[in-house]
Specification:
- The chain has about 300 residues and is α+β, with helices and mostly antiparallel strands.
- It has helices at about 1-30, 35-40, 60-75, 90-95, 180-200, 220-225, 235; strands spanning about 45-50, 80-85, 100-105, 120, 125-135, 155-165, 170-175, 205-210, 230, 240, 260-265, 270-275, 295-300.
- Helix 3 crosses helix 4.
- The radius of gyration is 25 Å and the shape is globular.
């Protein structure tokens, strides 16, 4: 017993030293003031992609394009994709081929009917918190409504996401404006701005779509980037690839006239590091008659 009593002070000293070492280690693991900020602005790869509806007619039928579409998504690995024109069974095919994604959408004619503004998101990275749809018309809550002379129904799907990696929340908005009516395009753009403003949110917003209007050469663009307050990721990106390629090609050789009708826009604390028009094809087969546009965005970082 006397032997153990002699050891007791030494044991107490050792415990104190171990405790001090543990505290010092924990302090060394505490992020520096700038480290938390870096985490909050981790980048996301965001794509807009007009899929071209699932036509059964060769040479660009959906069965021919489906594997090329799957390869494109595998190779480019976007975290978030706003699609246009996809129909229900086509979207199901993509989800089966690329199980790392889930998707949200509603047919523009209601339920599974008509084309979708479907939003595909990488399940491991993003969690949807809320979503909704509205129609580009004088009655935006009326499913399938069209009141501006456009023959095709046009709509918007939006989703509020939480980035699982950074806890950052943001709104992702996906649309497809009319291909014939300039009036419908302008009214559609104005309604999108109005509806987003009505949400009264300070969250960053990313707006993507096929706008059927050439960037910087159409009033539709001016409405969104002017009073709407949006910035075009293509022009704000520090690096651009495929600078002059038109985003619509009609399954033909890419045209280098710089006509961009597919845009990735943002509002709030969003910075574009790079943007790319993806001209991927396999054995001469394009996945769609549009080239996807992808941008790497840091959401939560002011420009």
């Amino acid at each position: 017993m006397k032997f153990h009593r002699r050891l007791l002070p030494y044991l107490m000293l050792m415990l104190c030293l171990l405790r001090a070492a543990s505290i010092a280690h924990a302090q060394n693991q505490t992020p520096a003031p700038g480290q938390n900020q870096v985490q909050k602005i981790a980048s996301l790869r965001i794509m807009t992609f007009n899929l071209r509806f699932a036509s059964p007619k060769p040479p660009n039928s959906w069965p021919q394009r489906r594997p090329v579409t799957s390869d494109l998504l595998r190779l480019t690995a976007p975290d978030l994709v706003g699609t246009q024109e996809g129909v229900y069974h086509q979207l199901q095919d993509i989800a089966r081929d690329r199980p790392e994604y889930d998707w949200i959408g509603l047919g523009r004619d209601g339920g599974s009917r008509g084309e979708f503004m479907a939003v595909f998101y990488r399940k491991e990275r993003l969690e949807p918190l809320e979503f909704n749809h509205f129609w580009l018309s004088d009655t935006p809550e009326v499913m399938g409504s069209s009141t501006w002379g456009n023959t095709n129904v046009r709509m918007v799907t939006w989703v509020k996401f939480r980035d699982r990696q950074t806890e950052q929340q943001f709104l992702f908005v996906n649309t497809h404006l009319d291909h014939q009516s300039q009036v419908a395009r302008e009214k559609g753009a104005a309604l999108i701005v109005q509806r987003l403003n009505a949400l009264n949110t300070e969250l960053p917003i990313v707006l993507v779509g096929d706008f059927n209007a050439i960037a910087k050469a159409n009033k539709t663009y001016d409405i969104l980037t002017g009073a709407g307050g949006f910035t075009d990721a293509w022009y704000s990106a520090r690096e651009r690839r495929g600078k002059n390629v038109a985003t619509f090609h009609g399954y033909n050789t890419p045209v280098n006239n710089g006509a961009h009708i597919d845009w990735i826009l943002s509002r709030g604390k969003v910075t574009a590091d790079n943007a790319e028009i993806i001209t991927y094809a396999r054995d001469g087969q394009y996945p769609s008659d549009h080239f996807p546009v992808m941008a790497t965005l840091r959401i939560g970082a002011a420009q």
